[in-house]
Amino acid sequence: MRTALVIGTGLIGTSAALALTRRGVTVYLQDEDADQARTAAALGAGSDEPPPAPVDLAVVAVPPALTGPTLADAQSRAAARGYLDVASVKGGPRRTLRELGGDLARYIGSHPMAGSERSGPLAASAELFEGRPWVLSPDGTTDTEVLNLALELVALCRAVPVVMDADAHDRAVALVSHTPQLVSSMVAARLEDAEEAAVRLCGQGIRDVTRIAASDPAMWIDILSANPGPVAEVLSEVAADLDETVRALRALQAADDGKRRTGAAGIEDVLRRGGAGRERVPGKHGAAPAEYETVTVLIGDRPGELARIFADAGAAGVNIEDVRIDHATGQQAGRVQLMVEPPAAHALTAALRERGWPLRQ
């Protein structure tokens, strides 16, 4: 691939353009919002001038509802040798392109499993896709050249290709992406009218659960409108669990010991199933999730504190596998939780104590 056209310069389109440009591909940028295309160009994502000739690959990075028509328009202009979209749903765009008379042989659906609660070109990064799964959904009509161009795009973006049927993909993202967004938003919505005293008690748990609730509502309306059926199916299962959990909690309030035991069993069941599901979430480098030891350090809110901790851990020969920060309410301090392999926990604890770091249980 020597040339590419990126249609749509939001977070995903601009990030792909930045990655391609960094690796020597000549990229042209197109967007209905000319200012947004100019912003992406100013960031080094490519040129906002029209390509002088058909490019090797056109990457369509527009909302799902517009993906099919945009693909059909690009094909009608013979803009590229191959066409690929990065919409978060795959069945709908293919069906729309077919209905509009598009060439399915020159098209492949794709979905990079990466993103951010922020949107727009200013949130873009050439490293956004590194190590992340990038779903490709070819079918029996897909031309081999187009599949190869798509695989080259994934490689240039340093992502990991995953081949998946379009409808199977849509069911999967309903479970692992679209439903979590709605559940996060519903939990965060409870905070809107909550008493200030309650909100001040927010800790890391509520921050973890509600982080993605900060996402752009307009973007998510587009996504959910393109995949409502599978999302509704998952949410109906969540709703059934919620109903059972509510009944179990009511039973815990009963005076009868038998009802309380039944309620406790119901709560235990949902917590156990939740833990079993969490254990299936891939860990570092896509491997099975690892059991880490946590070393907790109290730090002040001053420049360079985190850098010093990491430097001291590195000097002790300890690799930090993961890190979390729990900010103290109303104080210029916080707790940093350093996750390490169990054999390294003792060495890290000793090294940090020796360097004067206050540790916490």
Descriptive account of the structure:
The protein has three domains: 3-164, Rossmann fold, CATH 3.40.50; 170-279, 6-phosphogluconate dehydrogenase C-terminal fold (Orthogonal Bundle); 293-360, ACT domain (Alpha-Beta Plaits, 2-Layer Sandwich), CATH 3.30.70. It contains 13 helices and eleven strands. Strand 6 (133-137), helix 5 and strand 7 (160-163) form a beta-alpha-beta unit. Helix content is 48%, strand content 17%. 31% of the residues are buried. It has helices spanning 11-22, 34-42, 64-76, 91-99, 144-156, 166-192, 196-199, 204-210, 217-225, 228-252, 257-279, 305-315, 342-354; strands at residues 3-7, 26-30, 55-60, 80-85, 107-112, 133-137, 160-163, 293-300, 322-327, 333-340, 359-360. Helix 3 (64-76) crosses helix 4.
Considering the chains and any ligands shown, give keywords for the structure.
361 residues, alpha/beta, Rossmann fold, 6-phosphogluconate dehydrogenase C-terminal fold, Alpha-Beta Plaits, seven-stranded mixed beta sheet, globular
CATH superfamily grouping of the largest domain: NAD(P)-binding Rossmann-like Domain
Query: Helix tally?
Result: 13
CATH class category label of the largest domain: Alpha Beta
- In helices, the fraction of residues equals 40-55%
Rg from Cα? 24 Å
Number of domains: 3
- As residue ranges, the low-confidence spans are none
Write the layout of secondary structure elements.
Blueprint: E1 3-7, H1 11-22, E2 26-30, H2 34-42, E3 55-60, H3 64-76, E4 80-85, H4 91-99, E5 107-112, E6 133-137, H5 144-156, E7 160-163, H6 166-192, H7 196-199, H8 204-210, H9 217-225, H10 228-252, H11 257-279, E8 293-300, H12 305-315, E9 322-327, E10 333-340, H13 342-354, E11 359-360
Parallel strand pairs: 1-2, 1-3, 3-4, 4-5, 6-7
Antiparallel strand pairs: 5-6, 8-10, 8-11, 9-10
Helix pairs in contact: 3-4, 6-10, 10-11
